């Protein structure tokens, strides 16, 4: 028969777990949507050259980026960062490298429960080389950092692949690229 102290500790632990589960259920849950910016239907290929340097080829994209709060309480978005990379098929790391992202928006953006960003953010991104989808993955990925009403710092990672036909689709099979913590 468990002692009074053991029973009390078990009860406290169950109550703490229930409180944490309730807190998680009430928290904001930010999702990131990505699509081509209005007027854009896919990537465009370009070349550039600095004075006296060789020509550099690149693949460029204009993405529209917005956030939606699918949670039950408001959030305050504090940072948006992203990167565009071309990775050989089969070589994409399981975890996104968040240290290599470019921060493109540090404006505070309040987002009520069930609300979408008031205005989508258009971002121009370029990656060296001409893309060839036969052997490479074109990946648009990043993170949105935010505060919840309970004083916790949170983040949502997102990953989108530009597929054949220039469709933008959530990256399948890599859950760390589409995660809410």
Written overview of the protein:
With 181 residues, the chain is mainly β. It has one helix at residues 4-26; strands spanning 30-36, 44-48, 56-69, 75-88, 102-105, 109-111, 121-128, 136-148, 153-162, 168-170. A hairpin with a 4-residue loop joins strand 8 (136-148) and strand 9 (153-162).
Salient structural properties:
mainly beta; six-stranded antiparallel β-sheet; single chain; 181 residues
Structural class: mainly beta
Shape: elongated
Q: How many β-strand runs?
A: 10
What characterizes the major β-sheet? Answer: 6 strands, antiparallel
Distance between the ends: 39 Å
H/E element sequence: HEEEEEEEEEE
| Quaternary assembly | single chain
Strand content: 35-45%
Helical fraction: 10-25%
Radius of gyration from the alpha-carbon trace, in angstroms: 21 Å
Mean pLDDT: 85
The helix tally amounts to: 1
Name the poorly predicted regions: none
Short description:
The chain is mainly beta and 181 residues long. The chain has one helix and ten strands, in the order αββββββββββ.
Topology:
Layout: H1 4-26, E1 30-36, E2 44-48, E3 56-69, E4 75-88, E5 102-105, E6 109-111, E7 121-128, E8 136-148, E9 153-162, E10 168-170
Antiparallel strand pairs: 1-3, 2-3, 3-7, 4-5, 4-6, 4-8, 8-9, 9-10
């Amino acid at each position: 028969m468990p002692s009074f102290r053991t029973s009390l500790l078990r009860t406290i632990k169950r109550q703490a777990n229930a409180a944490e589960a309730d807190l998680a259920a009430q928290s904001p849950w930010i999702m990131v949507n990505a699509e081509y910016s209005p007027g854009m239907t896919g990537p465009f290929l370009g070349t550039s050259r600095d004075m006296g340097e060789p020509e550099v080829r690149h693949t460029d994209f204009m993405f529209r980026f917005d956030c939606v709060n699918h949670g039950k309480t408001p959030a305050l978005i504090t940072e948006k960062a992203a990167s565009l990379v071309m990775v050989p098929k089969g070589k994409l790391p399981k975890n996104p490298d968040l240290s290599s992202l470019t921060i493109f928006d540090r404006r505070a953006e309040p987002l009520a429960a069930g609300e979408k960003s008031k205005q989508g953010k258009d971002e121009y991104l370029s990656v060296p080389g001409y893309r060839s989808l036969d052997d490479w993955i074109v990946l648009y990925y990043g993170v949105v950092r935010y505060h919840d009403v309970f004083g916790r710092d949170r983040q949502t990672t997102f990953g989108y692949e530009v597929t054949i036909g220039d469709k933008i689709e959530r990256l399948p099979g890599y859950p760390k690229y589409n995660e809410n913590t």
